[in-house]
Amino acid sequence: MQFQDRVAIVTGAARGLGAATAHELSRQGARVVICDIDGALAEGVADDIRKEGRDALALRVDVSKIPELDALVKAAVDRYGRLDILVNNAAICPRIPVDDMTEEKFDQIVAINLKSVFFLSRAAGNAMKPGKWGRIVNVSSVGGRTGGIYASTVYAATKAGVMSMTKAFARHFAPHGIIVNCVAPGSVDTRLMADLSPESLQGTIEGVPLKRLADPLEIARVIAFLSSDGASYMTGAILDVNGGAMMP
Ligand SMILES: NC(=O)c1ccc[n+]([C@@H]2O[C@H](COP(=O)([O-])OP(=O)(O)OC[C@H]3O[C@@H](n4cnc5c(N)ncnc54)[C@H](O)[C@@H]3O)[C@@H](O)[C@H]2O)c1
Q: Best mutation site among 190, 212, 217 for ligand 1, i.e. most ligand atoms within 8 A of its Cβ?
């Protein structure tokens, strides 16, 4: 129960890696604010946690809308009196070949995957300052290192941006006891992988020395570590959790 007195926000927590992270932080004692653009699904995750006898709050939030991010932080602090942990997890990865990319789609991917990380980290970090302790964990991707392989050029660029922002925010918030780190997963068994062709999926798995996709919980456990006291001398770090698919 290492997060007994802690309050956490997890974005994109209605399913996949975000839901696994919300469950893991909650199991270890945190009160978790589950936010997602799919409010009904987010409520379902919160219900599951409450059924296990713990507190959770679900909020419908579009992370690409900056006023909604400020309102999210305020709602967490109003409800629980503090904020300690932020997991910037929400993202989209539409598979769009270079020649089919539109300006509108480009802007949407950047707004959800990257702009949100800047504005929510700023708002949440400022709310963590009174406690002189904080953890921000950004979810990037192996694609941020490789440039993205399966029609995900813009997605991959946002994930490289997330790595860069991790380092900048690590310096920015260090004087306040707030550490900022990043996890770069390889291929995880979630909806995000569902639109890969069977051949691409097979090729991906063959390229992983461990010969399988990650279970979301295997990434969530690393996020929980980066959210813990155990990570106290790490900041600005990027942890590659990819079954050996890419060893930088
Ligand atoms: N699945 C993988 O193979 C993989 C690999 C590397 C990195 N990642 C990263 O892991 C994170 C989680 O992805 P996942 O695999 O669980 O995908 P997912 O599609 O299952 O979950 C993403 C969640 O984000 C939510 N979301 C989308 N747009 C939103 C918005 N505007 N506002 C709020 N919520 C929004 C979705 O509703 C969904 O619940 C992402 O940052 C993704 O880039 C995933």
A: 190
The model's pTM: 0.98
Q: Is 155 a catalytic residue?
A: yes
**Ligand 1 pocket, residues with Cβ under 6 angstroms:** 11-12, 14-18, 36-38, 61-64, 89-93, 112, 139, 141, 185, 187-188, 190-193
Q: Please give the chain's pLDDT, 248 residues, in tens.
A: 999 999 999 999 999 999 999 999 999 999 999 999 999 999 999 999 999 999 999 999 999 999 999 999 999 999 999 999 999 999 999 999 999 999 999 999 999 999 999 999 999 999 999 999 999 999 999 999 999 988 999 999 999 999 999 999 999 999 999 999 999 999 999 998 888 889 989 999 999 999 999 999 999 999 999 999 999 999 999 999 999 999 98
C-alpha span between 139 and 89 (Å, rounded): 5
List of domains in the chain: 7-241 (3.40.50.720)
Catalytic option among 80, 150, 155, 233:
155
Query: 178: CA distance to ligand 1 center in Å?
Result: 24
Contact 210, 14 (CB under 8 A): no
Identify the residue whose C-alpha is closest to ligand 1 atom 32. 62
